Amino acid sequence: MKKILTCLLIFSFKLGFAQDPIFSQFFMIPETINSGFTGAYESTKAGVIHRVQWPGLDFSVNTQFAHIDNWFEEIRSGLGISVLNHKETQTRYNFTQINLNYAYEVRLNDTWFFRPSISVGVGSKNFGFQNILLEDQINVFSGIISTTTIDPSILEDNVRFFDYSASILFMKERSWIGATVRHLNKPNISLVYNENAALDMFMSVHGYLELPILRRDYSSRFYLTANGMKQGEYNRLDFGTQYVYDERFSFAVLAATNPIRVNPESHFLTSINTVFGMAHEGWKFGYSYSFNTTNIGKTGGVYELSISYDFENNSNCFGCPKY
Known about the structure:
Blueprint: H1 2-16, E1 45-53, E2 61-72, E3 77-88, E4 93-104, E5 106-107, E6 113-114, E7 117-126, E8 158-171, E9 176-182, E10 202-216, E11 220-231, E12 234-245, E13 249-257, E14 269-280, E15 283-292, E16 302-310
Antiparallel strand pairs: 1-2, 1-16, 2-3, 3-4, 4-7, 5-6, 6-8, 7-8, 8-9, 9-10, 10-11, 11-12, 12-13, 13-14, 14-15, 15-16
């Protein structure tokens, strides 16, 4: 039983605890990657995205992100709330975080705007260690199971922490580029009593740029999108293109890569992500599916469903100008 406990601890720190959840549709709901989008469209906006990873395996991961934000013209600022929930079904590991997001807007010239932002939140991670039974809790003669143990690893079922992040964002009509640093305070997320396990800072540089090719009456366009991420020893680069037809339908293909391989035997290309989107009268819908390119087996892939709504700008189409 202690071997099982050790494996769970290793797994929790190496996989569950070490990496932030990542969404393939970061350009569909960019609030998932940069708090500078809080109030960025000068309206009230809400969105939710649901991600299911590896449903074909015994181990599957479900992640949800939801946000709502509003623009305050008198102070040139956006204010919003976001909630992230992440659950691993086999291990029962669960991570939930609620953030308050603030962004301020500065006009740089006639076309570009600068939006620095901060995000402050409270997080909770738990593993359900109450379901683990250790050897010294079992009395084989009486058949009684004790609720106490003298095992030196005193485990906590839940750990709560404060967390804060910062982002910068440069925006124009149909393009943006930004950077985010999360967990600036490196909060302690250890589930072992009186121990310290600092959560690594998550760093991301991301962009969405219009390409001046194959335009059709200015209503159909190509975009280049990319998101480079690093957290501890883990790194990832997603890049690809999106085609928008008639400002209402979109199709994107992205490659998820591992550019800095810690293990020489690891794959450079980990998946191919396809994204389909549709916009109508303030609503925007997205569906994506990721095709695994590694030899991990029949995972069932990864799929995401996103929905967002702009309460004021009912012409919330793909690639529509902000101003």
